[in-house]
Amino acid sequence: MPTIVVDVMPKPEILDPQGKAIAGALPRLGFTGFASVRQGRRFELTVEGEVTEDVLAQARKAAEELLSNPVIEDVVNVAVLTESAQNESPSAR
Fold first, then answer.
1. Residue 74 phi, psi dihedral angles, 5° rounding
2. Which one, of 44, 25, 47, 46, lies nearest residue 36 by Cα?
3. I need a surface site. Which of 12, 35, 49, 52 has the fewest CB within 10 A?
4. C-alpha 2 chain-centroid distance
5. What digits encode the pLDDT tens for the residues 5-24?
6. pTM of the complete model beyond 0.70
7. CATH code at 27?
8. How many domains are there within the chain?
9. Rounded to whole angstroms, how far apart are CA atoms 16 and 88?
10. Burial class of residue 68 in the structure, from the number of CB atoms within 10 Å of its CB (0-12 exposed, 13-18 middle, 19+ buried)
11. Residue 6's CB: how many other CB atoms inside 10 A?
12. How far apart are CA 32 and CA 22, in angstroms?
């Protein structure tokens, strides 16, 4: 079954304490070269049948009205997950 991925991120002007904590931990764990981190959320919507423009429009509307808080978050991506990405192991994503 096809999957639609929705990515939601805090608006740039919103403080991101989780991202800040991760950014502080990265160099201590040997991961260098990263200037900052923003923590977001990902939703996967499984579709029965074909993904049509109408289904994508419904996913966008759900993302704006239900999956995100428009006061503090932006919906940054609503897209069909490719078949090759669906077949990858979770650790490879």
1. -115, 140
2. 25
3. 35
4. 17
5. 999 999 999 999 999 999 99
6. yes
7. 3.30.1280.10
8. 1
9. 29
10. buried
11. 22
12. 12
Closest to 43 (Cα-Cα) out of 17, 63, 23, 72: 63
Residue 52 per-residue DSSP state: -
Determine the Cα–Cα distance for residues 24 and 65; give it in Å rounded to an integer.
Answer: 33
**First-residue to last-residue Cα distance in the chain:** 18
In this prediction, residue 82 has a pLDDT band, given cuts at 50, 70 and 90, of confident
Enclosing domain of residue 66? 3-92
Question: Which amino acid appears at position 47 of this protein?
Answer: V
pLDDT tens figures, 36-68: 999 999 999 999 999 999 999 999 999 999 999
Model pLDDT, residue 2: 95
